[in-house]
Fold this protein.
Amino acid sequence: MGLNRRRTHRNISEIRARIKEGIARASTARCRRSYTLLMDTPGTGSAPARLTLPQVRQLIEVLPCAAILLDPQGGIAHLNDAAGALLGMPAQDLLGRNLLSLYPDEASRQPLRDSLRQFHQRGELETTLWRADGQQRPVIASFNHVAVADSARGYRLITLVDIFRLKDTEASLKFQQEFLVQMSDTVMQQALSLKELNEKLEQRVQQRTRELHDANMDAIYMLAVAAEAKDHDTGAHVLRIQRYSQALACAIGLNEREADEIGYSSILHDVGKLHVPDHILNKPGPLSDEERRAMEQHTVVGERILSTRPFFGRARRIARSHHENFDGSGYPDGLKGQEIPLEARIVHVADVYDALTSARAYKEAWSVTTAMRMIRESAGTLFDPAIASALAQLHDSGDLRTLTLGFCDFSPK
């Protein structure tokens, strides 16, 4: 007896395992929707609108498993062809009959009678189904209450899976698993747990993204300071370029995110100077043609130094093209007008303005007034007119001076 019971439990466990395995290939969306419309789950506060009996019958027909609709007395109100085949009689011949009439004696009918007394209860059990030919068929029966608009007590929907025809009823097992999942009291808790897990994962992704951004910014500042150190600059130059570029980007209508990206990407505009010999960088007089060609290579080298990751995309374009002139007279590619990347046109104006107003080994600092005159006069030749105009507006409003606070090493006159 104990061995048989263990075997039975093992068989049920194996069947349920197969059902769970089938959920990944569960029935069509149409069948799922049909089943959801049929189910009445008391106590959840979310019962669907009641269907009419003809509508329920139509929905039962699309279920991919054997399904029987019983009234409170056990009368067969409807069944699909799969249920008729399982009971051993055409479905139309079984309509109107009482399911109890298929059982041979009162003892065999008693479990069904007991179940009907708790008509609104839902559940699942292994039981024996009596066929019209008197044969017994072991099945897994799942049952639930169905509210129907034209019936006071509604009906009971029973779905049946033939245990001995597991391979032949694979589609039924797939749907059965979805049925069991919907009936499980733990489904909502599982959904909430999954939601909490997703939120934690999202927080970790956001934290990792911030950490990666901070690491990239550290790399930017270290590279920029290293490049500027060769040019005997304290690092204030690249920070001023960042502020100027970000302010200019906002002034010409770019959004805050784009302006911020252009700002921190501009810091690396001269990173290619790491490959320029010190005697050229710090030469107090004019450069020879050969020295100038070596100096101009810092744009190409800068692009090559920077990572190919998307984060450094703007920085690469700036490094290569921030010496291109609007009229095509710049280097290294002789681009003109809109051919020059927008971020490079912005940094070109910011870099020249800061270079003019800062002291260098080869020149004294210009006054802001003189530098602004040069910027205005060079609009359309060296600089994008719209960006030169934006710089003039920042100067006239006083915002340009505010940007230099804490980084001012030039004459404000």
